[in-house]
Amino acid sequence: MNAMNGRTRLFSALGGGAVLGAVLTALGPAGNFWIGWLSSTLLLSLSLWGLIFAWQKAGAGRTLAWMVALAFFLRLGVGVLVMELLPEYGYDTLTQNRGYLFYDAFRRDNQAWDIVKAQEPLLKSFAEEFKTDQYGGLLATSAFVYRYLSPDVQRPFLILILGAFTTALGTAFFWRGVRFRFNERLATLAGWIMVLYPDSILFGSSQMREPFLIGLTGIALWGVLAYFKDKWAARAGLVLSLAGMLLVSSRVAVAVAGVLVVWFWAEHLAPRSRAWAWGGALALLVGGVGVAYFGWDWLRDAFLWDANRTEAAQGWVVKIIQEAGEQFRLPILAAYGLAQPVLPAAIADDAILIWKVIAIFRAAGWYALAPLLLYAFFTVWKAAPEEKRILLWTAGFVLVWLLISSIRAGGDLWDNPRYRVTFIPFMALLAGWGVLRAWDRRDWWLVRWLLVEIIFLGYFTNWYFSRYFHLWKRLPFWQNVLMISVLSAVVLGSGLLWDAGKGLYRRLREKEHGHPRAD
């Protein structure tokens, strides 16, 4: 696929934007057709032009073209499809009757329209009374779009365009950064994970913060990795993406900035001298202690509130905590949060068709990604020396973020995965590295972790199916946990013994025949 010149790029964007704009306007709410068509065409044309430009700057390859196109059109298409289907086939709630997947998206989008109707200043978005957007940035953006592009009627599709564009743009820059730092194979695999991860698609197909945070994180990551290669472009991208995240979600922005500061130190400063390495490590230690100290009260209060909500919604969770003891409340809720959304529960749940499909889709995605992350967590210390430092830090941050998300949201089916998915660029990088390492080295440890997950799913499929369908005798919860633990220990333990035996055999062979000559 050849790169386009400026004129071809412009005409392609305008033509595609005009056609798609007409389709969206026809599907959208009643209003002035020409206003709807012009506003949709403008946003779509700018989005397509920007994505083509980013694709060319990233290398203009065929695979990347498919990746960026799917990142954009999949999220926009699913978003439009869901908004069309939910009023007819969803639950009879105000949120779903209006076509919204999430209550937060429904409230924020309608508050943006209220600001426009009341002719309030856009800075009103940051006022205290708008509780559905803690930070105000996305609310202000939505109100701006409605005020200046859609003053006659509320058109939620316009916000979907912006979210899909930001994610797709971040995908292009993420691919370029990973390719530059590692290699094209990892960039491609990690990029596809980022594009196709179900929760990334689902949250990216709604008027939520997540598509903006994911895309901006991808751009910021490129800014760090290409800081001395793309120079001013990378530095401007880094600053602007972090500024955008601060407006959308300051807490996520601080977390991502913390990861990127460590990346910058590990990538550009620590290799220079021992002074930079030890000085940076000391600064990171002090910073980590400070964040833990000042953020502990917020995390504790948030955990208590979400834990109470989880226990109120899931009575069996209370029973399990009572049986285990109150001292195990935190690890039980954290483990339950890590398991969400639970695949057997999604399959067994008596939900209407559209929500059953969504639940299975989301859960299958998490249970496909989780063993890849587990394998990477336990293998990353074996990475090549030039990659080890940065991958170890990435694994550490991802693990901490997963735990914080689980503790922060408990077993909530939506908030926990929503917090988790904001780190999908880092998780995709780590999972992609693990898959390539296992493939290249024919490492059976990835298969062993998959077997552990199969054991977990098998026993909890029995537990949930016997609970919902009463098809067979239901094993007690703790008996399930015991059987899963024992069988998993057998799988992992046999793997350790096999590796130890191979190592011993190799050493004996070398001792008997001498060390092999270096090639």
Automatic annotation (TrEMBL):
Subcellular location as annotated: Cell membrane
GO biological process, one term: lipopolysaccharide biosynthetic process
Coiled coil feature spans: none
Main location: membrane
Taxonomic superkingdom: Bacteria
Membrane topology, as annotated: Multi-pass membrane protein
GO molecular function annotation: pentosyltransferase activity
TM spans (from-to): 35-55, 64-83, 157-175, 211-228, 240-264, 276-296, 353-378, 390-409, 421-439, 446-465, 477-498
Keywords: Cell membrane, Glycosyltransferase, Membrane, Transferase, Transmembrane, Transmembrane helix
InterPro entries: LipidA_mod_glycosyltrf_83
CC per GO annotation: plasma membrane
The protein's name: Glycosyltransferase RgtA/B/C/D-like domain-containing protein
